[in-house]
Design goal:
Layout (H helix, E strand, L loop, with lengths): L9 H13 L1 H12 L8 H18 L8 H19 L5 H21 L5 H8 L3 H22 L5 H4 L7 H19 L3 H12 L4 H8 L3 H23 L12 H15 L3 H8 L2
Helix pairs in contact: 1-3, 2-3, 2-4, 3-4, 5-6, 5-7, 5-10, 6-7, 7-10, 9-12, 9-13, 9-14, 10-12, 11-12, 12-13
Length: about 280
């Protein structure tokens, strides 16, 4: 049980401890959801400990007069605590990052040589790896991108972070499709932007390192990172909620580029494939 400390009255202490005790399930739900987005070697015990601390902090800072339900408020604090724990503990193992760099380099080389994205079998053969290992590395890369993308999205309110009391079948399908569209959006990024996203967020390479590789300045890498995240958001919204897309001049160059990107995201997979990929 997480402890509640501080200079408070016995009544306040009891109220906070009661809040923690009654809402322990929120931690279990958040940990189970986060565990699907990170490699299997990440310790659930460490995540649970961080989640409990987040719950305790929520109980300590909760003000019922603000009109927000505690479970909604706590869900946001718990999720933030889990993301902080993952970033602090360097959850992506050194061996995973090393394999990801190798697969990424071989993929880039084959893409330039073949004029298309290579298959897993082609990458495996060129990298002298097992095809299953290549698929596993790419899965970890995508999970890392999902995690880092979610940690950077701002403006999420408490309602969006509130877990449903019961996962309905239609809710599960919508969640799977949303995640699959994110993977499609990453895969459809222009090559240089994709390298920045994977290099910066998953391989945890310095911006100067990426700048040297791509032959640009460090400030340009920062701009490319921002551009990539904007495209990811728009790519997902183009399929899930087109009304959220920014208004562009229909004949402008930017509009044409984005329309091409949206089409690539839409064509990358069908409904059945998206559901299969999201549960792999």
């Amino acid at each position: 049980m997480a402890t509640i400390s501080g200079d408070i009255t016995p009544e306040q202490r009891q109220r906070e401890e009661d809040l923690v005790r009654r809402h322990l399930a929120l931690v279990g739900y958040a940990v189970a959801e986060m565990a699907t987005k990170v490699p299997r070697h990440v310790s659930r015990a460490d995540l649970t400990s961080a989640g409990m601390e987040g719950l305790a902090q929520a109980a300590r800072g909760f003000d019922p007069e603000r009109g927000i339900a505690f479970d909604r408020y706590a869900a946001t604090r718990i999720r933030g605590a889990l993301l902080d724990e993952l970033r602090r503990r360097d959850w992506a193992s050194r061996s995973v990052r090393s394999r990801a760099r190798k697969v990424g380099a071989v993929t880039d080389e084959l893409t330039a040589k073949l004029g298309r994205m290579p298959t897993d079998d082609e990458v495996a053969e060129a990298a002298s790896m097992d095809p299953v290992a290549v698929s596993a590395v790419q899965s970890d890369v995508y999970r890392a991108v999902v995690l880092n993308y979610e940690s950077l999205v701002t403006g999420v309110d408490a309602d969006a972070a509130m877990p449903a009391a019961l996962e309905t079948p239609d809710g599960v399908l919508i969640d799977r499709e949303r995640k699959a569209y994110l993977l499609d959006s990453v895969a459809s990024l222009p090559e240089r932007l994709r390298r920045v996203v994977i290099g910066y967020f998953f391989e945890e390479r310095a911006m100067q390192d990426l700048a040297d590789e791509l032959g640009v300045t460090e400030s340009r890498i920062s701009q490319m990172r921002a551009e990539a995240l904007g495209l990811l958001r728009d790519g997902m919204n183009s399929q899930l909620d087109p009304e959220l897309l920014p208004v562009e001049k229909p004949t402008g160059r930017v509009a044409r580029r984005k329309a091409s990107y949206y089409a690539a995201v839409a064509d990358r997979s069908d409904y059945r494939t998206r559901l299969s990929a999201a549960t792999a």
